[in-house]
């Protein structure tokens, strides 16, 4: 797993309090990992800080799964 | 009780009667205070009076960019904004049929839109800290209306609806958003009333007197305190019984 994926996974595990093995490529933050809409905003904020990038609102809406997040951040950073 | 030691509070309209008293009371409870307002002199005088733990942060709330910059300036000065008191407000009274778009908009801009921008500006760090207190100073006229104050009453009622909605969104993050609605309070604004006008107003106040700025500040202190963690989305009416809501 890439460095980006590791760092994203760490944030997700810490923030949502889920088991690491639940955070799979296709795991949806809301449907599978128990996030509410505010959690997703906070995750995006945490990604922005961790990776020093800006994630605009319209892009944030497309980040539904762990895989989406890793892909977006890899491309943006 | 009500110890704010280590908390940083940003207060708008701190050059006014009520805002200045709110700053004194929060400061007295141990908070570091950021004093915002348009007039630097009274802010500086208040900061000098308070001594340590007081910062002057001038801001023109009708300037959207300046408003957006204020939370950042407050964080630079104090390290964080744990408590936000949206106290600043203006009036531009006129009979509704004569009210211009400009009279309407300028009051909405300062009283309502600036409050929204400040709430938004402090929200991210409050969410991260899992602690925050926002207290909006509304007015009894936001609840019961007042002739000649269509714009002011609308802005003050708007603050209540906004506070409740934000309160819904962020309650799970340890952030409370409440409103204090003063009635007739002794300030420079009400000093201008004639004795006859005051007597007329007081017939509507069961307590039979005007309120003091310190009585508003006490309500703010409670809502800003750790003890009020379970109170959110509420409006505390401080009006001597003028409107029992």
Automatic annotation (TrEMBL), chain A:
Transmembrane residue ranges: none
Location of the protein in the cell: Cytoplasm
Ranges for domain Carrier: 2-77
Gene3D superfamilies: ACP-like (1.10.1200.10)
Designated name of the protein: Acyl carrier protein
Main location class: cytoplasm
GO cellular component, one term: membrane
O-(pantetheine 4'-phosphoryl)serine: modified positions: 37
GO MF annotation list: acyl binding; acyl carrier activity; phosphopantetheine binding
Matches recorded under InterPro entries: ACP, ACP-like_sf, PKS_PP-bd, PP-bd_ACP, Ppantetheine_attach_site
Entry similarity comment: Belongs to the acyl carrier protein (ACP) family.
Pathway stated in the Swiss-Prot or TrEMBL entry: Glycolipid biosynthesis; KDO(2)-lipid A biosynthesis; Lipid metabolism; fatty acid biosynthesis
SUPFAM superfamilies per record: ACP-like (SSF47336)
Species per Swiss-Prot/TrEMBL record: Antarcticimicrobium luteum
Biological role: Carrier of the growing fatty acid chain in fatty acid biosynthesis.
PANTHER family found in the cross-reference section: ACYL CARRIER PROTEIN, CARRIER DOMAIN-CONTAINING PROTEIN
Domain of life of the organism encoding this protein: Bacteria
TrEMBL record, chain B:
Underlying gene: fabG_6
Pfam families, per database record: adh_short_C2 (PF13561)
Single GO MF annotation: 3-oxoacyl-[acyl-carrier-protein] reductase (NADPH) activity
Name of the protein described by the UniProt record: 3-oxoacyl-[acyl-carrier-protein] reductase
Summary of subunit composition and partner proteins: Homotetramer.
EC id: 1.1.1.100
Alphabetical UniProt keywords: Fatty acid biosynthesis, Fatty acid metabolism, Lipid biosynthesis, Lipid metabolism, NADP, Oxidoreductase
Gene3D superfamilies, alphabetized: NAD(P)-binding Rossmann-like Domain
Binding site for NADP(+): 38, 87, 152-156, 185
PROSITE patterns in the cross-refs: ADH_SHORT
Species in which this protein is naturally found: Falsiruegeria mediterranea M17
Domain of life (superkingdom): Bacteria
Domain Ketoreductase: 7-188
């Amino acid at each position: 797993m890439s460095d980006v994926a590791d760092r994203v996974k760490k944030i997700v595990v810490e923030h949502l309090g889920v088991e690491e093995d639940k955070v799979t490529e296709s795991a949806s933050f809301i449907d599978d990992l128990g996030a509410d809409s505010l959690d997703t905003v906070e995750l995006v904020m945490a990604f922005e800080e961790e990776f020093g990038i800006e994630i605009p609102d319209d892009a944030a809406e497309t980040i539904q799964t762990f895989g989406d997040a890793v892909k977006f951040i890899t491309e943006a950073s | 009780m009500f110890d704010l030691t280590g908390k940083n509070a940003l207060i708008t309209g701190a050059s006014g009667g009520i805002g200045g008293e709110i700053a004194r009371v929060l400061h007295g409870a141990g908070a570091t205070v950021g004093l915002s307002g348009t007039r630097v002199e009274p802010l500086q005088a208040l900061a000098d009076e308070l001594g340590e733990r007081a910062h002057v942060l001038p801001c023109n709330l009708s300037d959207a960019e300046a408003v957006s910059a204020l939370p950042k300036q407050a964080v630079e000065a104090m390290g964080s904004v744990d408590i936000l008191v949206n106290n600043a407000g203006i009036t531009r009274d006129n009979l509704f049929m004569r009210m211009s778009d400009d009279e309407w908009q300028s009051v909405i801009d300062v009283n309502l839109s600036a409050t929204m921008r400040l709430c938004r500006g402090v929200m991210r760090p409050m969410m991260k800290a899992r602690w925050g207190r926002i207290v909006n100073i509304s007015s009894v006229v936001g609840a019961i209306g007042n002739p000649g104050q269509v714009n002011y009453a609308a802005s003050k009622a708007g603050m209540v609806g906004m506070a409740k909605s934000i309160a819904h969104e962020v309650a799970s993050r340890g952030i409370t958003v409440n409103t204090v609605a003063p009635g007739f309070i002794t300030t420079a604004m009400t000093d201008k009333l004639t004795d006859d006008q005051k007597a007329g107003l007081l017939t509507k106040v069961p307590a039979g007197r005007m309120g003091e700025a310190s009585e508003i500040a006490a309500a703010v202190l409670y809502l800003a305190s750790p003890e009020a963690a379970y109170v959110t989305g509420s409006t505390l009416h401080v009006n001597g019984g003028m409107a029992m809501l």
